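Worked Example 4.2. Read the sequence first, then its structure tokens.
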Amino acid sequence: MAENVGDLPRIDPITGAEAEIRLVQPFQARKEYLCPRCLRAISAREAHYVVVPATSADLRRHWHKRCLAWELRHGSRNR
């Protein structure tokens, strides 16, 4: 599994559009979010990725690290 942001493709796995992928460190994660792949909570203080579409920063999504890695490898065809 890709742990380094530099190892991940720069795309939004949901839209396929170009995106910036940022690693949110545990000390930076202050809120709970819902992961779009597994629909489970990303707890505050849990390291995770945020995917920010290049053309629509307001559509950013927060992902579990393992969920984003899986989605980028396999795509959303199994949803």
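Now turn to a second chain, presented in exactly the same format:
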Amino acid sequence: MPWSTYYLRNLGLLDGLPDAVGRALEQHVRVQAFTRRQVVFAQGAPAEAVYLLAEGMVELVRREGTRETILLVLTPGDFIGEPLEDPSQGHPVQARALEASIVCSIARPELEAILLAHPALAWRLLTWLSRNTSQAYTRIHALASCEVPEKLLGLLRHLADRHGVPTQEGLEIPVRLTQHELAALIGSCREAVSRGLKALRARGLISVNSRYITLRQPA
């Protein structure tokens, strides 16, 4: 089985669709591996392809001069960037791997031709986008209505649900996020995140080693 079809089926994107859809996609979908901190696409680069994260984690970063703002962390099954954005416009953000990641991409003209030939895939992509948007709104609402420790806890629970590795202490999050990155993700500052992490440790909700954070299981 071609790698592109393997990843698309593993994500569930092709569930229930005719085999012809998979055969059409496997001829055009490109599979790329990215190392930690490697750029998937640059801000301002032509939006000539549609990207889907198959494995790993990718952050969307808005750059203004020397300043960077992390807007969102994506997990497998998420589209990277806005797949329906005007291709004549450059990407409004930079996409960068947070860890070793696998990305599937397809040129827009090729995807458009496949969608015209297979309307069922078009509907699947729309429902997929709707699901991702709904999940993003839920996370944003949770972050907007809490203090820093609770915002951090909500973010860590989300990451643990998607990436957590069971250990004796709980769910270890195998993603190296700096305090600056955590702050950007919850709309706070590094100093507040440092205090928030200390508060969560004091409450026995997390443990932190030199590399990763572990979300501890309730006693």
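Notes for the reader: The longest helix spans residues 119-144. The chain has a mean pLDDT of 84.
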